[in-house]
Amino acid sequence: MEDSAAPQQNNNEQKTRDNFDTVPDTSQTPMIRSEIDAATEPSSQSNSNNSSSGDDALRIRDSADNTASALGLVIEASEGQRQQGPGVGGSDGGEVSPKSANQVTVVGDKAVRSDIALSVLQQLYLPEQTDAYRKVNLQDKTLSFPHSPSFPSVKMLLNHERKRILVTGGAGFVGSHLVDRLMLMGHEVIVLDNFFTGSKRNVQHWLGHPHFELIRHDVVDPFMIEVDQIYHLACPASPPHYQYNPIKTVKTSVMGTINMLGLAKRTKARFLLTSTSEVYGDPEEHPQKETYWGHVNPIGPRACYDEGKRVAETLTYSYMQQDEVDVRVARIFNTFGPRMNENDGRVVSNFIMQALRGDELTIYGDGQQTRSFQYIHDLVDGLILLMNRNYKEPVNLGNPEEFTIRDFAEMIRSEINADVDIMSLPPTEDDPQRRRPDIGRAQKYLGWNPKFSVYQGIRETVQYFKKTKNEQAWYTD
Ligand SMILES: O=C(O)[C@H]1O[C@H](OP(=O)(O)OP(=O)(O)OC[C@H]2O[C@@H](n3ccc(=O)[nH]c3=O)[C@H](O)[C@@H]2O)[C@H](O)[C@@H](O)[C@@H]1O
Protein backbone atom coordinates (compact mmCIF):
# COMPACT_ATOMS: atom_id res chain seq x y z
CA MET A 1 0.00 0.00 0.00
CA GLU A 2 1.61 3.03 -1.16
CA ASP A 3 -0.20 6.26 -0.59
CA SER A 4 2.87 7.65 0.98
CA ALA A 5 3.63 10.93 -0.70
CA ALA A 6 3.49 14.41 0.79
CA PRO A 7 1.96 14.30 4.26
CA GLN A 8 -0.76 16.89 4.41
CA GLN A 9 -2.89 18.51 7.03
CA ASN A 10 -4.95 21.61 7.25
CA ASN A 11 -3.16 23.97 9.57
CA ASN A 12 -6.42 25.16 11.07
CA GLU A 13 -7.62 21.76 12.05
CA GLN A 14 -7.11 20.33 15.49
CA LYS A 15 -4.64 17.51 15.01
CA THR A 16 -5.11 14.23 16.77
CA ARG A 17 -3.10 11.05 16.43
CA ASP A 18 -6.31 9.11 16.10
CA ASN A 19 -7.17 10.95 12.93
CA PHE A 20 -3.70 10.48 11.44
CA ASP A 21 -3.63 14.23 11.27
CA THR A 22 0.01 14.64 12.10
CA VAL A 23 2.97 12.76 10.78
CA PRO A 24 6.62 12.70 11.72
CA ASP A 25 9.33 14.40 9.69
CA THR A 26 11.48 11.41 8.93
CA SER A 27 13.94 12.80 6.47
CA GLN A 28 16.90 12.88 8.85
CA THR A 29 16.24 10.43 11.66
CA PRO A 30 13.34 8.12 12.28
CA MET A 31 10.37 9.41 14.27
CA ILE A 32 11.04 13.14 14.47
CA ARG A 33 7.68 14.81 14.32
CA SER A 34 7.08 17.66 11.98
CA GLU A 35 3.89 19.58 11.46
CA ILE A 36 3.24 20.00 7.81
CA ASP A 37 1.08 22.81 6.68
CA ALA A 38 -1.28 22.03 3.88
CA ALA A 39 -3.54 25.01 4.37
CA THR A 40 -2.31 26.13 1.00
CA GLU A 41 -3.51 23.07 -0.88
CA PRO A 42 -4.93 23.94 -4.24
CA SER A 43 -8.64 24.26 -4.53
CA SER A 44 -10.60 21.99 -6.78
CA GLN A 45 -11.15 24.97 -9.03
CA SER A 46 -7.52 25.12 -10.02
CA ASN A 47 -7.99 23.40 -13.35
CA SER A 48 -10.26 24.58 -16.04
CA ASN A 49 -11.20 22.96 -19.25
CA ASN A 50 -11.81 26.14 -21.16
CA SER A 51 -8.87 28.37 -20.50
CA SER A 52 -7.38 29.77 -23.67
CA SER A 53 -3.92 30.41 -22.29
CA GLY A 54 -1.11 29.20 -24.50
CA ASP A 55 0.78 27.59 -21.65
CA ASP A 56 3.54 25.37 -23.03
CA ALA A 57 3.49 22.82 -20.29
CA LEU A 58 0.06 21.62 -21.18
CA ARG A 59 0.31 21.65 -24.90
CA ILE A 60 0.41 17.90 -24.74
CA ARG A 61 -3.26 17.90 -25.63
CA ASP A 62 -2.28 19.27 -28.98
CA SER A 63 0.77 17.13 -29.45
CA ALA A 64 0.99 14.37 -31.99
CA ASP A 65 1.51 11.91 -29.15
CA ASN A 66 -1.79 12.73 -27.65
CA THR A 67 -3.78 12.95 -30.79
CA ALA A 68 -2.61 9.46 -31.55
CA SER A 69 -3.14 8.31 -28.01
CA ALA A 70 -6.73 9.52 -28.20
CA LEU A 71 -7.07 7.22 -31.17
CA GLY A 72 -5.59 4.34 -29.24
CA LEU A 73 -2.27 4.33 -31.10
CA VAL A 74 1.12 3.68 -29.56
CA ILE A 75 3.72 6.31 -30.15
CA GLU A 76 7.37 5.45 -30.29
CA ALA A 77 9.23 8.47 -29.11
CA SER A 78 12.02 10.11 -31.01
CA GLU A 79 15.48 9.99 -29.47
CA GLY A 80 15.53 13.68 -28.75
CA GLN A 81 12.22 13.67 -26.94
CA ARG A 82 12.78 10.65 -24.78
CA GLN A 83 16.42 10.85 -23.82
CA GLN A 84 15.76 13.99 -21.86
CA GLY A 85 18.24 12.64 -19.30
CA PRO A 86 17.53 13.87 -15.83
CA GLY A 87 20.80 15.73 -15.64
CA VAL A 88 22.07 13.93 -12.59
CA GLY A 89 25.49 15.05 -11.50
CA GLY A 90 25.67 17.68 -14.16
CA SER A 91 25.61 15.22 -17.05
CA ASP A 92 22.21 16.31 -18.32
CA GLY A 93 21.46 13.14 -20.25
CA GLY A 94 24.25 13.63 -22.75
CA GLU A 95 26.44 10.78 -21.64
CA VAL A 96 25.40 7.26 -22.60
CA SER A 97 26.91 4.74 -20.21
CA PRO A 98 25.87 1.10 -19.85
CA LYS A 99 23.73 2.24 -16.94
CA SER A 100 21.79 4.67 -19.11
CA ALA A 101 21.54 2.47 -22.19
CA ASN A 102 18.22 0.86 -23.09
CA GLN A 103 16.17 3.69 -21.70
CA VAL A 104 12.49 2.89 -21.44
CA THR A 105 10.38 5.18 -23.62
CA VAL A 106 7.00 3.45 -23.61
CA VAL A 107 5.33 1.99 -20.53
CA GLY A 108 2.27 -0.21 -20.07
CA ASP A 109 1.00 -3.18 -22.00
CA LYS A 110 -0.95 -3.16 -25.25
CA ALA A 111 -2.83 -6.27 -24.17
CA VAL A 112 -4.74 -4.26 -21.56
CA ARG A 113 -4.41 -0.94 -23.43
CA SER A 114 -2.34 0.64 -20.68
CA ASP A 115 0.54 1.45 -23.05
CA ILE A 116 1.58 5.08 -23.26
CA ALA A 117 4.69 7.09 -24.12
CA LEU A 118 6.71 7.87 -21.00
CA SER A 119 6.94 11.47 -22.16
CA VAL A 120 3.16 11.86 -21.74
CA LEU A 121 3.37 10.77 -18.12
CA GLN A 122 6.44 12.93 -17.54
CA GLN A 123 4.42 15.99 -18.47
CA LEU A 124 2.27 15.27 -15.41
CA TYR A 125 5.07 15.08 -12.86
CA LEU A 126 8.00 16.77 -14.60
CA PRO A 127 6.33 19.48 -16.69
CA GLU A 128 8.75 21.58 -18.73
CA GLN A 129 7.16 24.64 -17.25
CA THR A 130 7.00 23.81 -13.56
CA ASP A 131 4.59 26.58 -12.67
CA ALA A 132 1.92 25.43 -15.09
CA TYR A 133 -0.39 24.44 -12.25
CA ARG A 134 1.03 26.27 -9.29
CA LYS A 135 3.29 29.27 -8.90
CA VAL A 136 5.31 29.50 -5.70
CA ASN A 137 6.67 32.93 -4.89
CA LEU A 138 9.17 32.37 -2.10
CA GLN A 139 9.86 36.08 -1.67
CA ASP A 140 6.25 37.11 -1.12
CA LYS A 141 5.34 33.74 0.37
CA THR A 142 2.36 33.44 -1.90
CA LEU A 143 0.95 30.63 -3.96
CA SER A 144 -1.13 31.11 -7.06
CA PHE A 145 -2.94 28.55 -9.16
CA PRO A 146 -3.20 29.61 -12.77
CA HIS A 147 -5.97 27.95 -14.69
CA SER A 148 -4.44 25.31 -16.88
CA PRO A 149 -5.25 25.58 -20.57
CA SER A 150 -6.39 22.02 -21.03
CA PHE A 151 -6.36 18.56 -19.57
CA PRO A 152 -4.10 15.84 -20.88
CA SER A 153 -5.85 13.93 -23.67
CA VAL A 154 -7.40 10.65 -22.67
CA LYS A 155 -8.27 7.69 -24.87
CA MET A 156 -11.76 7.53 -26.31
CA LEU A 157 -13.51 4.40 -25.11
CA LEU A 158 -16.89 3.06 -26.05
CA ASN A 159 -19.44 3.23 -23.25
CA HIS A 160 -19.22 -0.47 -22.48
CA GLU A 161 -15.40 -0.27 -22.39
CA ARG A 162 -15.22 2.68 -20.01
CA LYS A 163 -15.15 1.52 -16.40
CA ARG A 164 -15.90 3.39 -13.20
CA ILE A 165 -12.87 2.75 -11.08
CA LEU A 166 -12.43 3.56 -7.39
CA VAL A 167 -8.86 4.13 -6.17
CA THR A 168 -8.52 4.37 -2.39
CA GLY A 169 -5.38 6.26 -1.45
CA GLY A 170 -5.45 7.68 -4.99
CA ALA A 171 -3.81 10.97 -3.98
CA GLY A 172 -0.73 9.19 -2.63
CA PHE A 173 2.53 8.35 -4.32
CA VAL A 174 1.53 5.07 -5.98
CA GLY A 175 -2.16 5.94 -6.15
CA SER A 176 -1.64 9.13 -8.13
CA HIS A 177 0.49 7.38 -10.77
CA LEU A 178 -2.15 4.67 -11.07
CA VAL A 179 -4.81 7.37 -11.44
CA ASP A 180 -2.81 9.05 -14.21
CA ARG A 181 -2.66 5.83 -16.15
CA LEU A 182 -6.32 4.88 -15.66
CA MET A 183 -7.40 8.37 -16.69
CA LEU A 184 -5.20 8.33 -19.79
CA MET A 185 -6.64 4.92 -20.64
CA GLY A 186 -10.04 6.64 -20.82
CA HIS A 187 -11.73 5.34 -17.67
CA GLU A 188 -13.74 7.23 -15.04
CA VAL A 189 -11.78 7.46 -11.82
CA ILE A 190 -12.97 8.22 -8.31
CA VAL A 191 -10.30 8.85 -5.70
CA LEU A 192 -10.87 8.43 -1.97
CA ASP A 193 -8.16 9.84 0.24
CA ASN A 194 -7.93 11.22 3.78
CA PHE A 195 -4.77 13.16 2.84
CA PHE A 196 -2.76 11.83 5.77
CA THR A 197 0.11 10.99 3.45
CA GLY A 198 -1.55 11.76 0.13
CA SER A 199 -1.80 15.22 -1.37
CA LYS A 200 -4.25 17.01 -3.64
CA ARG A 201 -1.22 18.30 -5.48
CA ASN A 202 -0.54 14.78 -6.80
CA VAL A 203 -3.81 14.71 -8.73
CA GLN A 204 -4.24 18.43 -9.24
CA HIS A 205 -3.93 18.13 -13.02
CA TRP A 206 -7.18 16.11 -13.13
CA LEU A 207 -9.33 18.28 -10.88
CA GLY A 208 -12.40 19.38 -12.82
CA HIS A 209 -12.02 16.73 -15.53
CA PRO A 210 -15.40 15.18 -16.38
CA HIS A 211 -13.99 11.67 -15.84
CA PHE A 212 -12.48 12.44 -12.43
CA GLU A 213 -13.72 12.85 -8.85
CA LEU A 214 -11.72 13.45 -5.68
CA ILE A 215 -13.37 12.74 -2.34
CA ARG A 216 -11.88 13.37 1.10
CA HIS A 217 -12.82 10.24 2.98
CA ASP A 218 -11.21 7.88 5.47
CA VAL A 219 -11.70 4.24 4.46
CA VAL A 220 -12.12 3.32 8.13
CA ASP A 221 -15.66 4.66 7.65
CA PRO A 222 -18.03 2.93 5.19
CA PHE A 223 -18.50 4.44 1.75
CA MET A 224 -21.16 3.71 -0.85
CA ILE A 225 -20.81 4.20 -4.58
CA GLU A 226 -21.48 2.20 -7.76
CA VAL A 227 -18.21 1.09 -9.34
CA ASP A 228 -16.83 -1.65 -11.60
CA GLN A 229 -13.36 -1.98 -10.11
CA ILE A 230 -11.73 -1.09 -6.79
CA TYR A 231 -8.00 -0.60 -6.35
CA HIS A 232 -7.60 -0.57 -2.57
CA LEU A 233 -4.34 1.21 -1.74
CA ALA A 234 -5.23 3.39 1.23
CA CYS A 235 -2.72 2.97 4.08
CA PRO A 236 0.49 4.75 5.04
CA ALA A 237 3.40 2.62 3.76
CA SER A 238 6.54 4.29 5.08
CA PRO A 239 7.68 2.64 8.35
CA PRO A 240 7.91 5.91 10.35
CA HIS A 241 4.45 6.92 9.14
CA TYR A 242 2.71 3.63 9.84
CA GLN A 243 4.46 3.32 13.21
CA TYR A 244 3.46 6.83 14.25
CA ASN A 245 -0.09 5.76 15.08
CA PRO A 246 -0.07 1.97 15.05
CA ILE A 247 -3.67 1.57 16.20
CA LYS A 248 -4.90 3.67 13.32
CA THR A 249 -2.68 1.71 10.93
CA VAL A 250 -4.31 -1.55 12.04
CA LYS A 251 -7.76 0.03 11.79
CA THR A 252 -7.00 1.29 8.29
CA SER A 253 -5.88 -2.13 7.09
CA VAL A 254 -8.62 -4.11 8.80
CA MET A 255 -11.69 -1.85 8.82
CA GLY A 256 -10.73 -0.13 5.59
CA THR A 257 -10.40 -3.46 3.82
CA ILE A 258 -13.68 -4.77 5.27
CA ASN A 259 -15.44 -1.63 4.07
CA MET A 260 -14.02 -1.86 0.57
CA LEU A 261 -14.69 -5.60 0.31
CA GLY A 262 -18.26 -4.96 1.47
CA LEU A 263 -18.57 -2.39 -1.30
CA ALA A 264 -17.16 -4.86 -3.83
CA LYS A 265 -19.64 -7.48 -2.65
CA ARG A 266 -22.65 -5.15 -2.97
CA THR A 267 -21.68 -3.68 -6.33
CA LYS A 268 -20.07 -6.85 -7.75
CA ALA A 269 -16.95 -4.83 -8.45
CA ARG A 270 -13.61 -6.54 -8.95
CA PHE A 271 -11.40 -5.81 -5.93
CA LEU A 272 -7.60 -5.49 -5.93
CA LEU A 273 -5.75 -5.31 -2.60
CA THR A 274 -2.30 -3.76 -2.58
CA SER A 275 -0.53 -5.91 -0.05
CA THR A 276 3.18 -5.79 0.63
CA SER A 277 6.46 -7.66 0.80
CA GLU A 278 6.22 -6.93 4.53
CA VAL A 279 3.88 -9.92 4.88
CA TYR A 280 7.08 -12.00 4.60
CA GLY A 281 8.54 -10.16 7.62
CA ASP A 282 12.27 -10.80 8.12
CA PRO A 283 12.30 -13.69 5.65
CA GLU A 284 14.05 -17.00 6.15
CA GLU A 285 13.52 -17.86 2.49
CA HIS A 286 15.33 -15.97 -0.26
CA PRO A 287 14.19 -14.78 -2.72
CA GLN A 288 10.62 -14.64 -1.48
CA LYS A 289 8.00 -16.68 -3.34
CA GLU A 290 4.28 -16.12 -2.84
CA THR A 291 4.05 -19.57 -1.29
CA TYR A 292 6.28 -18.51 1.63
CA TRP A 293 4.20 -17.87 4.78
CA GLY A 294 6.53 -15.33 6.30
CA HIS A 295 8.39 -14.60 9.50
CA VAL A 296 6.67 -11.72 11.24
CA ASN A 297 7.00 -10.58 14.84
CA PRO A 298 3.33 -10.11 15.81
CA ILE A 299 4.11 -7.69 18.65
CA GLY A 300 7.03 -5.74 17.17
CA PRO A 301 7.02 -2.13 15.94
CA ARG A 302 6.29 -3.18 12.35
CA ALA A 303 3.44 -5.51 13.33
CA CYS A 304 0.73 -2.87 12.90
CA TYR A 305 1.51 -2.77 9.18
CA ASP A 306 2.71 -6.33 8.56
CA GLU A 307 -0.05 -8.04 10.51
CA GLY A 308 -2.61 -5.48 9.32
CA LYS A 309 -1.80 -6.41 5.73
CA ARG A 310 -1.79 -10.12 6.53
CA VAL A 311 -5.31 -9.77 7.96
CA ALA A 312 -6.27 -7.69 4.92
CA GLU A 313 -5.21 -10.62 2.72
CA THR A 314 -7.14 -13.04 4.94
CA LEU A 315 -10.23 -10.86 4.66
CA THR A 316 -9.83 -10.65 0.90
CA TYR A 317 -9.77 -14.41 0.44
CA SER A 318 -12.56 -14.91 2.99
CA TYR A 319 -14.81 -12.60 0.96
CA MET A 320 -13.81 -14.48 -2.16
CA GLN A 321 -14.65 -17.88 -0.66
CA GLN A 322 -17.73 -16.92 1.31
CA ASP A 323 -19.29 -14.21 -0.86
CA GLU A 324 -17.72 -14.86 -4.27
CA VAL A 325 -16.09 -11.46 -4.47
CA ASP A 326 -13.77 -11.32 -7.48
CA VAL A 327 -10.38 -10.52 -5.91
CA ARG A 328 -6.76 -9.83 -6.81
CA VAL A 329 -3.83 -9.42 -4.41
CA ALA A 330 -0.55 -7.68 -5.28
CA ARG A 331 2.39 -7.97 -2.88
CA ILE A 332 4.35 -4.83 -3.58
CA PHE A 333 8.10 -4.66 -2.98
CA ASN A 334 10.07 -1.45 -2.39
CA THR A 335 8.97 1.14 -4.91
CA PHE A 336 10.22 4.64 -5.62
CA GLY A 337 9.72 7.54 -8.00
CA PRO A 338 8.51 11.10 -8.46
CA ARG A 339 5.83 12.29 -6.01
CA MET A 340 7.45 10.58 -3.05
CA ASN A 341 7.62 13.23 -0.39
CA GLU A 342 11.04 14.34 0.69
CA ASN A 343 9.96 13.73 4.30
CA ASP A 344 8.62 10.28 3.54
CA GLY A 345 11.35 8.68 5.66
CA ARG A 346 12.08 5.80 3.31
CA VAL A 347 15.55 5.15 2.11
CA VAL A 348 15.26 6.41 -1.47
CA SER A 349 13.87 9.86 -0.62
CA ASN A 350 16.15 10.16 2.42
CA PHE A 351 19.35 9.42 0.49
CA ILE A 352 18.45 11.60 -2.49
CA MET A 353 17.45 14.59 -0.36
CA GLN A 354 20.47 14.20 1.93
CA ALA A 355 22.80 14.10 -1.10
CA LEU A 356 21.11 17.10 -2.74
CA ARG A 357 21.34 19.11 0.48
CA GLY A 358 24.97 18.11 1.06
CA ASP A 359 24.12 16.22 4.26
CA GLU A 360 25.55 12.88 5.34
CA LEU A 361 23.64 9.83 4.10
CA THR A 362 22.17 7.97 7.09
CA ILE A 363 22.46 4.18 7.13
CA TYR A 364 20.53 2.35 9.84
CA GLY A 365 22.71 -0.49 11.12
CA ASP A 366 25.70 -1.83 9.18
CA GLY A 367 24.09 -1.34 5.76
CA GLN A 368 24.41 -5.02 4.86
CA GLN A 369 20.62 -5.47 4.80
CA THR A 370 19.29 -5.69 1.25
CA ARG A 371 16.35 -4.34 -0.71
CA SER A 372 15.22 -4.62 -4.34
CA PHE A 373 13.90 -1.36 -5.76
CA GLN A 374 11.32 -1.01 -8.52
CA TYR A 375 10.40 2.10 -10.41
CA ILE A 376 6.85 3.35 -10.04
CA HIS A 377 5.76 2.86 -13.66
CA ASP A 378 6.67 -0.84 -13.57
CA LEU A 379 4.47 -1.26 -10.50
CA VAL A 380 1.54 0.53 -12.14
CA ASP A 381 1.92 -1.71 -15.21
CA GLY A 382 1.76 -4.75 -12.94
CA LEU A 383 -1.27 -3.55 -10.99
CA ILE A 384 -3.29 -2.86 -14.14
CA LEU A 385 -2.31 -6.20 -15.66
CA LEU A 386 -3.24 -8.03 -12.47
CA MET A 387 -6.62 -6.32 -12.27
CA ASN A 388 -7.39 -7.28 -15.85
CA ARG A 389 -6.12 -10.86 -15.82
CA ASN A 390 -7.88 -13.86 -14.43
CA TYR A 391 -5.36 -14.82 -11.76
CA LYS A 392 -6.56 -14.70 -8.14
CA GLU A 393 -3.61 -15.87 -6.03
CA PRO A 394 -1.24 -13.27 -4.53
CA VAL A 395 1.37 -11.94 -6.97
CA ASN A 396 4.72 -10.36 -6.10
CA LEU A 397 5.43 -7.10 -7.94
CA GLY A 398 9.00 -5.93 -7.55
CA ASN A 399 12.31 -5.58 -9.33
CA PRO A 400 14.60 -8.49 -8.41
CA GLU A 401 17.76 -6.35 -8.72
CA GLU A 402 19.05 -6.49 -5.14
CA PHE A 403 21.30 -3.94 -3.40
CA THR A 404 22.80 -3.78 0.05
CA ILE A 405 21.75 -0.50 1.59
CA ARG A 406 25.42 0.54 1.77
CA ASP A 407 25.89 -0.10 -1.96
CA PHE A 408 22.66 1.75 -2.63
CA ALA A 409 23.98 4.75 -0.66
CA GLU A 410 27.18 4.68 -2.72
CA MET A 411 25.14 4.51 -5.91
CA ILE A 412 22.98 7.51 -5.01
CA ARG A 413 26.03 9.48 -3.93
CA SER A 414 27.76 8.81 -7.22
CA GLU A 415 24.63 9.45 -9.35
CA ILE A 416 24.19 12.83 -7.71
CA ASN A 417 27.93 13.41 -7.68
CA ALA A 418 27.62 14.58 -4.09
CA ASP A 419 30.61 15.17 -1.87
CA VAL A 420 29.01 13.80 1.29
CA ASP A 421 29.90 11.19 3.89
CA ILE A 422 27.94 8.09 4.76
CA MET A 423 27.20 7.74 8.47
CA SER A 424 25.86 4.80 10.48
CA LEU A 425 22.94 5.16 12.87
CA PRO A 426 21.63 2.44 15.19
CA PRO A 427 19.63 -0.29 13.41
CA THR A 428 15.85 -0.14 13.54
CA GLU A 429 14.04 -2.94 15.34
CA ASP A 430 12.90 -5.93 13.28
CA ASP A 431 14.33 -4.44 10.07
CA PRO A 432 14.12 -7.23 7.45
CA GLN A 433 17.67 -8.26 6.55
CA ARG A 434 17.15 -9.54 3.01
CA ARG A 435 14.42 -8.83 0.53
CA ARG A 436 14.09 -9.81 -3.10
CA PRO A 437 10.98 -10.90 -4.96
CA ASP A 438 10.65 -14.09 -6.90
CA ILE A 439 8.60 -12.78 -9.82
CA GLY A 440 7.94 -16.11 -11.54
CA ARG A 441 4.20 -15.82 -11.00
CA ALA A 442 3.96 -12.32 -12.41
CA GLN A 443 5.99 -13.41 -15.43
CA LYS A 444 3.93 -16.52 -16.01
CA TYR A 445 0.40 -15.33 -15.30
CA LEU A 446 0.60 -11.62 -16.13
CA GLY A 447 3.36 -11.56 -18.72
CA TRP A 448 4.94 -8.85 -16.55
CA ASN A 449 8.58 -7.95 -16.12
CA PRO A 450 10.06 -4.76 -14.73
CA LYS A 451 11.32 -2.63 -17.64
CA PHE A 452 13.14 0.19 -15.87
CA SER A 453 16.67 -0.10 -14.58
CA VAL A 454 17.07 1.30 -11.09
CA TYR A 455 19.45 3.85 -12.63
CA GLN A 456 16.89 5.29 -15.05
CA GLY A 457 14.34 5.47 -12.26
CA ILE A 458 16.76 7.12 -9.86
CA ARG A 459 17.71 9.73 -12.45
CA GLU A 460 14.11 10.69 -13.05
CA THR A 461 13.44 10.77 -9.33
CA VAL A 462 16.44 12.98 -8.71
CA GLN A 463 15.23 15.30 -11.45
CA TYR A 464 11.85 15.47 -9.74
CA PHE A 465 13.35 16.21 -6.32
CA LYS A 466 15.56 18.90 -7.81
CA LYS A 467 12.52 20.56 -9.39
CA THR A 468 10.36 20.41 -6.29
CA LYS A 469 13.02 20.85 -3.60
CA ASN A 470 12.50 24.54 -2.97
CA GLU A 471 8.77 24.23 -2.95
CA GLN A 472 8.78 21.19 -0.68
CA ALA A 473 11.21 22.91 1.69
CA TRP A 474 8.85 25.86 1.88
CA TYR A 475 5.85 23.67 2.60
CA THR A 476 7.61 21.74 5.34
CA ASP A 477 9.49 24.60 7.03
O1 LIG B 1 9.48 1.39 -0.08
C1 LIG B 1 8.62 0.51 -0.01
O2 LIG B 1 7.96 0.28 -0.98
C2 LIG B 1 8.43 -0.29 1.25
O3 LIG B 1 8.86 0.54 2.32
C3 LIG B 1 8.82 -0.03 3.60
O4 LIG B 1 9.75 -1.05 3.76
P1 LIG B 1 11.31 -0.83 4.05
O5 LIG B 1 11.99 -1.81 3.17
O6 LIG B 1 11.61 -0.88 5.48
O7 LIG B 1 11.62 0.63 3.45
P2 LIG B 1 12.66 1.78 3.87
O8 LIG B 1 12.18 2.56 5.04
O9 LIG B 1 12.90 2.53 2.62
O10 LIG B 1 13.97 1.03 4.34
C4 LIG B 1 14.76 0.25 3.48
C5 LIG B 1 16.06 -0.06 4.20
O11 LIG B 1 16.86 1.12 4.27
C6 LIG B 1 17.21 1.42 5.61
N1 LIG B 1 17.25 2.89 5.75
C7 LIG B 1 16.13 3.65 5.61
C8 LIG B 1 16.21 5.02 5.67
C9 LIG B 1 17.45 5.63 5.91
O12 LIG B 1 17.60 6.88 5.98
N2 LIG B 1 18.54 4.83 6.05
C10 LIG B 1 18.47 3.48 5.98
O13 LIG B 1 19.52 2.79 6.11
C11 LIG B 1 16.16 0.73 6.47
O14 LIG B 1 16.65 0.46 7.76
C12 LIG B 1 15.89 -0.53 5.65
O15 LIG B 1 16.83 -1.50 5.93
C13 LIG B 1 7.39 -0.51 3.83
O16 LIG B 1 7.26 -1.11 5.06
C14 LIG B 1 6.90 -1.39 2.74
O17 LIG B 1 5.56 -1.72 2.91
C15 LIG B 1 7.02 -0.72 1.42
O18 LIG B 1 6.67 -1.62 0.42
The chain-level mean pLDDT equals 81
Total beta-strand segments: 19
Please give the share of residues in helix.
Answer: 25-40%
Q: Helix/strand-derived class?
A: alpha/beta
Written account of the structure:
Helices cover 31% and strands 15% of the residues. The two termini are 27 Å apart. With 477 residues, it is α/β, with parallel strands linked by helices. The protein has 12 helices and 19 strands. Uridine-5'-diphosphate-glucuronic acid is lined by residues 237, 239, 276-278, 305, 332, 334-335, 346-347, 350, 362-364, 369, 371, 405, 428, 431.
Give keywords.
binds uridine-5'-diphosphate-glucuronic acid; single chain; 19 strands; alpha/beta; 477 residues
What's the quick description here?
By secondary structure, the protein is of the alpha/beta class. The protein is built from twelve helices and 19 strands. The longest helix is centred in the last third of the chain and has 23 residues, at 454-476.
Topology:
Layout: E1 23-25, E2 32-34, H1 64-70, H2 79-82, E3 106-107, E4 116-117, H3 118-125, E5 135-137, E6 142-144, E7 164-168, H4 173-184, E8 188-193, E9 212-216, E10 229-232, H5 239-244, H6 246-267, E11 270-276, H7 303-323, E12 327-332, E13 335-336, H8 347-357, E14 361-364, E15 370-372, E16 374-375, H9 376-388, E17 394-397, E18 402-404, H10 405-416, E19 422-425, H11 440-446, H12 454-476
Parallel strand pairs: 7-8, 7-10, 8-9, 10-11, 11-12, 12-17, 13-16, 14-19
Antiparallel strand pairs: 1-2, 3-4, 5-6, 15-18
This protein binds uridine-5'-diphosphate-glucuronic acid (UGA).
